[in-house]
Amino acid sequence: MTTTTVRIPDVVVIPLEPWRELQHREAIIELNEPPPLLVVEVVSESTKHTDYRAKRSEYSVLDIPEYWMVDPLEAKVTRLTLVEGWYDPTEYKRSDRVHSDLFPNLGLTAQQVLNGNVI
Predict the structure, then answer these.
(1) According to CATH, what is the number of the domain 11-22+35-115?
(2) What region holds the Putative restriction endonuclease domain (predicted)?
(3) Could you give the CA distance from residue 92 to residue 50 in angstroms, rounded to a whole number?
């Protein structure tokens, strides 16, 4: 028996054209498609193990260049950047500015992200 795992991230940032294609099917990241630019997972008590372990390895296989874990349980945002097939983590707390290679002008603090004040 084969088990297939499907991940549907909490937030996905993708270019416009792939987004248009997703309007006509389920929003699942396929191996044969260009990877999302950014995936964001919001950690909860029930998803903590999966968010911190399983998803990290699965997203690296998909070549997702940047992956964030927003963890209100630990009051931190972890940015993971893909380097040679592995994610390098950087943690941000409170008034730390969250850096993003994809969005260099973002300017949000960890607390703003944790509070949902992202506009």
Answers:
(1) 3.90.1570.10
(2) 5-110
(3) 20
